[in-house]
Design goal:
Layout lengths: L1 H23 L5 E11 H6 L6 H8 L5 E11 L2 E6 L18 E5 L4 E8 L2 E8 L4 E11 L2 E10 L3 E8 L17 E7 L4 E9 L15 E3 L1 H11 L4 H12 L1
Helix pairs in contact: 4-5
């Protein structure tokens, strides 16, 4: 009798373990992710060419320390569409930053990207290949929006160091903006030198129709290299602030 009881007990424990593992091993191939984009405006101000500390302190009194905006990333199989999400009522339009209204479509199967970028009063439709990033995956992990994510370090735009966290529980190898190329969904990105981060806040298991993945179509057609040349020509006398503006647009 005791052996039977022991056998039944162990069977229940094993079944519970298998059930729990199956519940945790959920792999998403479509849905929507909300990303929070955050910029430390005070830190960026300290990087300016102007060494007038009194002026910087005065400017800090007129601006928030952080500028926070929200974006939605729709994903299904090998396609993603990243676009502005819910409005943050705390934001002041006076301190609008570059790339706050970017719309980015990535076809990860064909390695093609279509991005709508507004530069002041002109809309550019950037059609190019998806960005190639030199990634180095580490053993460090972090929980983001309920997903265990692994850290990867990368280099973009020749020398800009970035930190990303991805999860293989979401099978689409995309991410916010133009950040892709890891074996799973990128849930967080930080660029320390530019004082900017993107982190997922929520993941929604929604049905994503083709209409929710339509790439942008309006704007002056260009490529990344042509847009970069245009920006450098327009902002060649803008100093360090101009360099940061160009980086923000090109990210």
């Amino acid at each position: 009798m005791q052996k039977i009881f022991t056998y039944l007990f162990l069977s229940c424990v094993l079944l519970a373990s298998i059930t729990t593992h199956a519940q945790n091993a959920i792999f998403l191939s479509e849905g929507r992710i909300e990303f929070e984009r955050r910029i430390n405006l005070y830190a960026q101000l300290e990087d300016e060419d102007n060494n007038d500390t009194d002026w910087k302190e005065l400017m800090k009194k007129t601006m928030p320390k952080f500028k926070t905006t929200y974006f939605d990333l729709n994903f299904k199989d090998g396609k993603t569409l990243y676009r502005p999400g819910r409005e943050n009522t705390d934001n002041n339009r006076l301190w609008q930053q570059p790339a706050e209204d970017n719309i980015v479509f990535n076809n990860l199967e064909t390695y093609q990207s279509t991005t709508l970028k507004n530069v002041y009063d002109q809309a550019f439709l950037v059609q190019d290949t998806t960005r190639k990033i030199k990634w180095k995956i580490t053993e460090e992990t972090r929980n983001i929006a309920g997903f265990t994510c692994r850290r990867a370090n990368g280099i973009v735009m020749d020398s800009l160091y970035i930190v990303a966290f991805y999860t293989d529980a979401i099978t689409t190898s995309g991410g916010p903006e133009c950040f892709t190329g890891l074996p799973g969904m990128i849930m967080g990105v930080a660029i320390p030198r530019e004082h900017i981060t993107w982190f997922a806040t929520k993941v929604y298991t929604e049905v994503i129709t083709d209409a929710k993945l339509n790439p942008p179509a309006k704007g002056k057609k260009t490529t990344n290299q042509s847009l970069l040349t245009t920006l450098k020509d327009r902002m060649k006398d803008w100093g360090k602030w101009g360099e940061r503006y160009i980086k923000a647009i090109m990210l």
